[in-house]
Amino acid sequence: MMNYKYRIYPNTDQQAKILDWLETCRGVYNYALRELKDWIASRKCDVDRCSLSKEYIIPADTPFPSYHLQQNNLPKAKKINPKLKEVHSQVLQTTIRRLHDTWDAFRSRSFGFPRFKKFGQFKSFLYPQFKENPLKDGCIKLSKIGEVAINLHRPIPDGFTIKQVRVLSRARHTQWYVVITIALDVEIPENPPIGRAIGVDLGLEKFVTTSDNFTVERPKFLKDLKGKLKSLQKRASRKHKGSKSWEKAQIKVARLHHKIANTRKDFHLKTAHLLCDQAETIFAEDLNTVGLNRGMLRKECIDASFGQFLDLLKWVCWKRGCYFQKVDPRGTSATCPECGATVQKALKEREHICPECNYKTHRDHAAAQMVRLRGLESVPKDFGERKLSGNGGLSGVNSLDKCLSRNAQL
After folding, report:
1. pTM (predicted TM-score)
2. Domain of 329?
3. Are 269 and 263 in contact (CB under 8 A)?
4. What is the pLDDT of residues 128-152, one digit of tens each?
5. Directed axis angle between helix 244-278 and helix 226-237, to 10°?
6. What DSSP assignment string belongs to 167-200?
7. pLDDT for 281-322, tens place per residue?
8. Cβ-contact 162, 156 below 8 angstroms
9. Is 61 a domain residue?
């Protein structure tokens, strides 16, 4: 299964209906969450005593408000609240499913309890299935909403069927998208670790440094537009909250944030393709991105978004037939890739100079070489840098010069 994201352009009436649906789904989500929290709270009190402040009076034989139970209660709720009938029935069911998926994730990891959604925080709803292809003549047909114009910038591949469609709102409900999930009943084997292998080191000085000493500069997405963002936020703060001028100012801020996010993602995808041009096997550091985003350099790390890049690199490698694997990053900067000696150095020291073998190179380059060595140790022993059939050189060498020239333009 794959997801394709497209921009849609609903008219005024359709936008009003979609916004109304989002608020209805938000109400269903919050009501179901309230039932869940009340049932849990009623079971917290000890059997032989009651709380001094308050008590949830729920009968002891009341079953847990599971997904199937709350879903079966939707027809009864529609009789009490006729507004629920305006929303597609399966959209409401997937809203309940969304809550219980969050609840199951909380139980498995012991943090991240579901929260109530405030006004405007519910930004998507899902059509879980379609009887026929909803795409036709530059439009997508959404049940009870109608045909909505869509920018089909890339066609659906032959043989794939549309399984579900999620409608998304971005930039304070001024930009609309659909995420189309397509599927094909085939079994795709995993990419084997063959061909040329490289190690990738991520950093703030150079965004990417490979074991071949190929580097990519790190664009500062937020810092470059920080002045404009600060100006727009300053104007918005001077407006009366809730007024039309305040809403217009907030939309400008949201659109700029959206532009920054899109620019960052575009850079990540292009960098991932650059790496796949060079090798068929890529090893990268398994960074603790959550810890980096809470550290001393959290603002720079969040702007670089290493976690998003690693996820996109894994996806691009799979799509292009490359092998991708993460390795343990601990000690990669403090180990000599030539002799394996431990070379401790402070963060400000950017050169790697080994006192044992006198190997000298950049700190990030040495770390990337260690990432490659650790990756090679984790794959089968018969793996090596194999030559492609019918080619006198290693895969990716011919495109390396092209990558270096493109890197200079980034």
Report:
1. 0.82
2. 197-386+393-409
3. no
4. 999 899 999 899 999 999 999 999 9
5. 160
6. EEEETTTTEEEEEEEEE-S--PPPPPS-S-EEEE
7. 999 998 888 888 888 888 888 988 999 999 999 999 998 889
8. yes
9. yes
